[in-house]
From TrEMBL:
InterPro entries: CRISPR-assoc_prot_Cse3. This is CRISPR-associated protein, Cse3 family. It comes from the Bacteria. Pfam families: CRISPR_assoc. SMART domains: CRISPR_assoc. The lineage of its organism: Bacteria, Pseudomonadati, Pseudomonadota, Alphaproteobacteria, Rhodobacterales.
Length: 245
């Protein structure tokens, strides 16, 4: 499969200026501290729709690309099709290069990954298994009345341990082993289509992962990079970026 890694940047024109409040979220630590930012899901959905315009040459195409927001109107996209060269009128001409890493078993790579990490769990015997966020599942028994600082520390500790365990399991079938791992951030994103009170609103968790891995099966690993990791890929999760360590 031919793959392309593209860097695209929103153009500064009247169309994108009019959409700035929707597509340009607050950046930096203040944004990361807003764990339950009600606008974040809407912003991610808007980004996804904008990126779709770069692949609108075939109306029957299903989403076959992964993407990642880098902030400031910049995005990285991994796709089997090159994006529109004119930026669809909303982006600057994309910077596109073939993605064909020359890997060998034993290669050590640094990585970053924004992932919605889930697992299946049965809540009661004989019930249908359901998908649960690995961090929220790890925090399930934590008293809700704990002070915010203590709960934040517990949340990040859970993201560190549950996130590493989840990625290690991914590696068993994806051709790699974890060497080093850190959870740089964890946040919860409300789904944008929800109408009604915030309590009970559908949401998903996002872990910002960094570290190093060792390639065990290059072909399997590259194939998995193309498919992505975890869920919520439409919301900018799942694209693992790699570099030589």
């Amino acid at each position: 499969m031919t793959l392309y890694l593209s860097r695209v940047t929103l153009a500064r024109n009247p169309a994108t200026t009019a959409l700035k409040a929707l597509i340009d979220p607050m950046e930096g630590p203040a944004a990361r501290d807003r764990l339950h930012d009600p606008d974040r899901g809407r912003i991610m959905d808007a980004h996804h729709r904008l990126i779709w315009t770069l692949f609108a040459d075939d109306p029957d195409r299903t989403r076959d690309f992964l993407w990642r927001a880098e902030g400031g109107g910049r995005f990285l996209i991994l796709s089997p099709h090159s994006p529109a060269t004119d930026g669809a009128g909303l982006f600057l001409p994309p910077e596109v290069k073939p993605f064909a890493p020359d890997l060998r078993a034993g290669d050590r790579l640094g990585f970053v990954l924004r992932a919605n990490a889930t697992r299946t769990r049965k809540t009661v015997p004989d019930a249908r298994a359901k998908r649960v966020d690995v961090v929220m599942d790890a925090l399930h028994g934590l008293p809700s009345g704990r002070q915010s600082d203590a709960r934040r520390e517990a949340r990040m500790a859970a993201a560190e341990t549950a996130g590493r365990d989840w990625l290690a399991r991914q590696g068993e079938s994806a051709g790699f082993q974890i060497a080093d791992f850190a959870a740089a951030d964890y946040s919860v994103v409300p789904l944008p289509a929800h109408i009604g009170p915030r309590k009970g609103q559908p949401q998903f968790g996002v872990i910002e992962m960094t570290g190093r891995l060792t390639v065990t099966d290059p072909g399997t690993f590259v194939g998995r990079l193309a498919r992505g990791f975890g869920r919520a890929k439409a919301f900018g999760c799942g694209l693992m970026l790699i570099r030589r360590a």
